[in-house]
Specification:
The chain is an alpha/beta fold. Helix content is 38%, strand content 13%. The radius of gyration is 16 Å and the shape is globular. InterPro entries: AB_hydrolase_fold.
């Protein structure tokens, strides 16, 4: 069976490259698309869904913003299982910072120039402060198109979703992007920051092999 995988905001497969998936399944990474000008989230999800072959059973796996995306994809093309890592199952699990962005609409009014390469480098250096043992943070942050980044931050802050109890959630207990206190995950990665798929890959790989039987 195919496992369709969507990585995090601005990230490609590198953040997940150390994970060992069940050998009996085929891994298909769905790359982020650059949003069209003023494209709404529904239309964007529809374009992402075009990459999924729903003529046969499949699984969905999403990391961070990719976790939000696979839940939206699941509404269009239902999967046998949906697993999210370092992500949330509903808007009720948003952090205070993200909720503040939703209320104040700050992401909408940030200029495109804010999402330039210098900001990306600053962001990765800041993340390295919280993940000092991970020297490859800058390599994970590959999709740097300013419009895509601004558009994505807006969509995350606006996202509304009713929790699907069948979604399997894996969270790190030191995640500051999506704090564990706001969720009731199925699995907890001890000592895991938001980058736990890269830093705790052995433990995560074991879980995925148990889930995707």
């Amino acid at each position: 069976m195919k496992i369709y995988v969507v990585s995090g905001l601005g990230a490609d497969f590198k953040v997940l490259e150390k994970l060992k998936f069940p050998e009996q399944h085929k891994i298909v990474f769905i790359d982020w698309l650059i949003p069209e000008l003023d494209e709404n989230f529904t239309d964007y999800v529809n374009r992402m869904a075009e990459k999924i072959d729903a003529s046969e059973p499949f699984y969905l796996l999403g990391y961070s913003f990719g976790g939000i995306m696979v839940q939206e994809l699941n509404k269009l093309k239902p999967a046998e299982k949906v697993v999210i890592m370092g992500s949330i199952k509903s808007d009720k699990e948003k952090s205070r910072l993200i909720k503040m962005g939703e209320v104040t609409k700050i992401p909408k009014y940030l200029p495109l120039s804010f999402f330039n390469d210098q900001t990306s480098v600053f962001y990765t250096r800041l993340r390295k402060f919280f993940d000092p043992k991970n020297p490859k943070i800058i390599e994970y942050f590959q999709v740097r198109d300013p419009y895509y980044l601004k558009w994505s931050v807006e969509r995350i802050s606006e996202w509304k979703f009713e929790e699907n109890p069948n979604v399997i959630q894996i969270l790190g207990d030191r995640d500051i992007v999506f704090p564990i206190k706001n969720s009731k995950p199925n699995y907890i990665i001890k000592g895991g920051t938001h980058l736990f798929p890269a830093t705790k890959y052995k433990e995560v790989s074991t879980l995925l092999n148990e889930i995707f039987v």
